[in-house]
Write a structure and sequence with these properties.
This protein is mainly alpha-helical. It has 29 helices and 7 strands.
Length: 564
Amino acid sequence: MIPDKDQPQEALEDARSIVNILFQVLRMLSFYAEDHTNCQAGLMRLHKDLGNFLEKNEELSLKVEKNRLLFGDAVVYEGDVKDGDLAFALFRDGILELSFQNGIEARETQVFVGILHKYKVLPAEAEGDIVTALWESQLPHVHYEAADSIIETDSEGGLSSPGENGPIPGGATSRQGADIFDSLETLKQDPAPCVLADKAKEWRRVDATIFELKTEEIAALQEMVFREEERDATGEILNMMADILKDQQNKEFFDVVLEYLSEELQMALARKNFDNSLRILVRLHQIRKLSVDSTSWAYSKIKAFFRRASGKKFLAALHELWPKMTAADLEKAQKTLILLPPVSIGAIGPMFCEMRTSSVLRMLADVIVTLATRDLKPFETLLDTSEEDLVHRLVPLLGHMKDESSTRLLLKMTQHPGERVRMEALKAIMTRDLWVPEELVSLLDDENSIIRQLYLDYLASRRSKTTEGILLGYLRKKRFRNHDKEHLSACLKTLGKCGTTASIPYLQNALLKGGLISRFRTSARRKGAAMALLELGSEKARQVLLEASRSGFPGIRNVAQSIL
């Protein structure tokens, strides 16, 4: 059929799309049973598009060449000259042209596709081919032209020809049929077959050895099984997806392919087949990258696929597998998981917290840190919505991140209601060597003494006017009670470690001054001030201590002499 002159390009594109869907359905049948939902979806899509085309154009006619299908003079499919290729299979069996008529029924489409699937690869001793199967199927709206006529036996057991019983069903024409038929007519006149037929009626014992396979037959069978097992179904599906994307058509079939890959990926993870899962994810990343600008519909579908693959239910099988994994398994698992989007942290985080094996913990920690570095929001959401036990295990991972967002989140975690969480957050800040003392002043009054001391150790780690100002301001404003003696002494000692000579006036006053009675007794403030002056280590600070050691008040003198 020549496309309508008013819309040749539209008809050509529609024809190319139909052939493309047919090719994809045939591929799908290689991986699923015919009644599988994915195959049925593909067949329905093919029949729908074919029906729409025929309603507009009445007929779809495709010429067959060795490895090509043509619509008019335009190539709508080009493959390889090899078994399994659609065009080559048609050419191999003598089909010259295929045509589909308006009114085709869904059953006809299904039967036609089934025939192509069954005979696209022929074994060495095949019993039938595409032409024979089409003739036997009697599809009223599917016609073909074949290079050779088909000779069949009639209902009485004799031979018939197109000349005796009318044209070959399906519209096949004969080019060699007359010569073949003449030879068969001669054979019918030979009485020898009749004699053989009579003898064949005699009962004979069947020799069981005729059912035994010969050595070469066994080898051929093993080779066939090996090829089937080695067939890379996933690779073919990924190539199919690339073909669909290239043509920018068949959105519905794209969904079918993604559904197949979803099942394959989940199965690969459950079986620790990380080679396959890694290949699927890598290729999908490539396809998503290619589809960002040219095919936004494909990009959104692949994005949805990755989100689904990142869910707890999808990754649940891994939970039982972690303790059984070797070092090689864990390495491949890590490469696989970091290809998931950061939202997968919601599923991976709880696994990390439930593991006890050190190698698994290290691997999952690396994965979470890598994913959170790309987008911290899912990690923050997990921290905000989880119980304290889970948050306590996850917060230390912030110590291995370097970006500003993770710093902000760490500071937020220092205000968490859970003591263990606040402590781990502060430790993570120290691990990262973050210097943000002014952001943590509230920890000086933390209800947990260990956290208070940890913060003082943090302040004491370097001399700074900032920390000196923080401590001086705190010491001057804070009203310390009897139960705060140790904390007061620790604050003064820390001031000596992080302060400068600017602190000496305050420390001198704390050591030498005070009420008359208090000068006769040792106090936490006086002892802390003496320790701070010693930590300052300056000559001026030493002079203050010497002065105190000669004081007439025993409380002052004893404190100074005890540390000099």
